[in-house]
Specification:
The protein is α+β, with helices and mostly antiparallel strands and 193 residues long. It has 2 domains: 126 residues, OB fold (Dihydrolipoamide Acetyltransferase, E2P) (Beta Barrel); 32 residues. A hairpin with a 4-residue loop joins strand 2 and strand 3. Keywords: Membrane, Transmembrane, Transmembrane helix.
Amino acid sequence: MVYVKWGLRAIFWIAVLAFLHYTLPQHDIARITDTYEKRVNPGENALFWSNAATGENVNATGRDVFFIQTFLTDDDPMIYRNEDTGWGWPPYFKFDTANLQAEASDMMSKKSAGSAQWVAIRHYGWRNEFLSIYPNAVSLWAVEGPDVRLVPWFNIVVLTLLAALWWAIRVRWNRFWERRGRPEGGEWREAAD
């Protein structure tokens, strides 16, 4: 039974960490090579796409999604989708998809040494080629070069607050069970009599 308990705890914490890794913003330094629009009809992987109700016809058979093609600093290709998140989850309240696509188109550059323009791309989500999952670009801005280091202050603050909340709940939970499990000496004597 101990193995089952530890297995369930491990599954719970893996799910929590996966949720946080998917939802919290991440930053990539990349070079934008192309932007395009594609008609998409999410199927089995619809969980990883934004809500279709954000400014679109919900009954449509497909929808147009913007994509941003990039190459990361290690020359690996990375494709981002560019969709509004609206009022849904995750709460990025992104309503400027067309503006972000225009900014990305303006920052395109080729691989030639002197003219490469590097950008920082804030996004959430994962890239999985097998399941056709793309991270959603939230914002982008020009940076000086591929060696720029960005400190994820927002993630540090959120994770610290979540750890403090977990610790506070855990301490109170343990105190509750200590008080409940160990009654005062007088109560033990009365129960024994």
